[in-house]
Amino acid sequence: MKEPVFSYIPGKSYLHKLDPRTKLAAVMLLGILVFRTESFFGMGVLFTFFIALTSFSGLPARVFFRAVRPMVLFIIFIFLAQLFFTEGQALVSFGVLHPTFEGLQNGIRLSARFILLLLFAALMTASTDPSAITSGIERILRPLPLSWMGVNSYELATMMNLSIAFLPILFDRVERTKAAQASRGMYFGKNPFHSVPALAIPLIRGVVRDAEELSLAMESRGYQGSRRTSMHEFVMQKRDWATLLILIIFAVLMLRF
After folding, report:
1. Which string of DSSP letters, residue by residue, matches 22-67?
2. DSSP 2
3. Residues with Cβ < 8 Å from 37, sequence gap 6 or more?
4. What backbone phi and psi angles, to 5 degrees, belong to 97?
5. Which of 19, 90, 103, 199 has the fewest CB atoms within 10 Å, i.e. the most exposed one?
6. How far lies 217's CA from each of 157, 206, 214, 220, in Å?
7. Cα separation, 64 vs 121, whole angstroms
8. Residue 27 to residues 21, 59, 104, 115, 180: CA-CA distances in angstroms?
9. pLDDT tens, residue by residue, 165-212
10. Which residues face 100 on adjacent strands?
11. Alpha helices per DSSP H over 128-237
């Protein structure tokens, strides 16, 4: 069976052995770099750094293609929006549409940023067990004074983990809904806009039903959002501190150049 997107793939690589807090901090730091980098050279360095990280993960390339594929239409949309609606030096003319050189640069830059965010997120989720991500988020948020907001670190970590867990379920439900409507004679190629209600309505109903079943299952098992113990307590190892040091040095160099 084909693995859903953003799913965990067990392994014994260097990245798999890192503490989840290290990987969460790395993704946040790399996300900041993605948004702060303006030059195409910097984008190329980030793509090269991602390729270097994948070599330490032992993960197949199809994992990352699967992560980007569902968002291809959105990436194309933001690229075209920048290309045709950014003022600047016109490249060619298509009637009322005038693609500009500045729009081409902005479109490539924004598309590259979005792709990099998807790739780094896929790298983390594929090399980290979802329960480890929950525990890592909880331990990062534990020192923060969240009680004045009416929540605690355990509840926030659970919500984030459920969101991550629901992503592959959501993509799988989209594919099943599309196949079910196609078996009933719906043709998606003729007019995609007419097929949106046929996909959205059963999809929303299915997601709400899944959420209700999950909440009932958690209540039946006596789930409480208060402090919970863990079978495995995380301890930062030397490789975690070394990885964070390398990432900080890399970030400083990227921000300076």
Report:
1. HHHHHHHHHHHHHHH--SHHHHHHHHHHHHHHHHHHT--THHHHHH
2. P
3. 43, 46, 254
4. -95, 130
5. 90
6. 18, 16, 5, 5
7. 9
8. 10, 17, 28, 14, 37
9. 777 777 778 778 878 877 877 766 666 566 677 777 888 888 888 888
10. 90
11. 130-141, 153-183, 196-220
Which has more confidence, 10 or 184? 10
pLDDT band at 117 (very low <50, low <70, confident <90, very high): very high
Identify the residue whose tokens are 């975690």: 240
What pTM value is reported for the model?
0.74
Is 100 in contact with 88 (CB distance < 8 Å)?
yes
Separation of alpha carbons 5 and 67, rounded Å: 5
> What integer best gives the mean pLDDT of the chain?
82
Question: In this structure, what token pair is assigned to residue 45?
Answer: 């360095």
Angle at CA 33, nearest 5°, toward 31 and 35? 75
Structure tokens belonging to residue 49: 């750094």
Burial class (CB in 10 A: 0-12, 13-18, 19+), 133: buried
Question: Cβ–Cβ contacts within 10 Å for residue 185, how many?
Answer: 6
Please state the length of the chain: 257
* 120-132 residue pLDDT tens: 999 998 898 877 8
Amino acid at 169: I
Encode pLDDT of 208-231 as tens digits. 888 888 888 878 877 766 666 666
